[in-house]
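Predict the 3D structure for this chain.
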Amino acid sequence: MQPVFITGGTGYIGKRLIPLLQRQGYAVTALVRQQSLNKLPPGCTPVIADPFTAASYAKKIAPNSIFIHLLGVSHPGPKKKLLFYSVDLASVKASVEAATQAGVIYFVYISVAQYPTKIMESYQDARAKAEQLIRDSGIKATFIRPWYIVGPGHYWPLVFQPFFKLMELLPSTGEKAKALALVPLRKMLRALLQAVGNPPDEPLRIIEIGEINRQT
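Done. Predicted structure below.
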């Protein structure tokens, strides 16, 4: 069984991804805080540690693991600017250090679309810096770059879907609308499963929104 180590396993995506990985035969170990232990899906091996301190969990990562980093600020918004650096970026720094020490063979990271915006500029910057840390590690990696993921509890952007479609048709806004399109949760999960099961031949693969939304 291919070992998988995951951060953010109790989050919106993680708690849905872990059972899918298990069904495909992966042995999943998840980094978790003590107070969130009961939120992990059944059958997942917990590692209780500090996600911002690599030394607290590096030795618990099985050699030749696939590392999936999902940990980040929930419900990101402009008012959480500082948290993007103290949580999102800081946790990736620790993850890269731990993955390097453990001999991880492949790193999968959910980043964010990098089309220039003003309202979420700090979020994009923190994620871009996180991507660079992973690149610099030399570990083979896949970056998946959604914008907003639509699913249970996160359906409100669908109200604006007709407006987004209109923007795609206009020459002045078409590029931006396509670069920041909504991503259904089911397609995000499929993109993750595809990324985990198909490591790239090259050192880095980047999956943008268009490719995520082509998942069937």
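The chain has seven helices and nine strands.
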